[in-house]
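Researcher: Please generate the 3D structure of the following complex. Treat every line as part of one assembly.
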Amino acid sequence: EVQLVQSGAEVKKPGESLKISCKGSGYSFTTYWIGWVRQMPGKGLEWMGIIYPGDSDTRYSPSFQGQVTISADKSISTAYLQWGSLKASDTAVYYCAKSFPMGHYDTFDVWGQGTMVTVSS
Amino acid sequence: QSALTQPASVSGSPGQSITISCTGTSSDVGHYNHVSWYQQQPGKAPKLIISDVSNRPSGVSNRFSGSKSGNTASLTISGLQAEDEADYYCGSYTISSTVVFGGGTKVTVL
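Model: Done. Output below.
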């Protein structure tokens, strides 16, 4: 079974750093793009960016460029989303998702369960 | 890049058909046939229901269908059922090599 399992909920203070993870299994992790999607409380989906674990080629939405860093460790089939300095406005659920078909990244066919990030003083 | 435009809400009675529109520009929806639709139930992760404008993944009910004309894509749900009550999002590839989602549409079954 193809699965993406994300790390657990986080509660952080403004200014702190954070790295959340997404572990893939049941498929060739290096040959499908993995993306990150933000969903703020009560709001819609926002495409943040995507990485190709095979060579770490990364693309960012202009809205998130410079605000977050997407990375991957193909040796452990895990993708990451990290912040250097969190803001209250980063409070949201973050989903990772596997792209479909191979070589393309416009569609997500498998999603992680989501990681709730709460940033509050 | 701006989000694709979807109606905030659409409603229908059981058994009826409803259509959700997704309007973009010539830089996204109008440029590529890479439009997808997702269903999100409350508290759950999104689920892919349509890819590449009109392709239905295995296991998705044939009551869901997609189409596109110009800069507007559409999702039609026929034979509306109570279980179809959810939020629906469209997504499109863009000429900037990114993806943009719509604002989402809440479907209510009356």
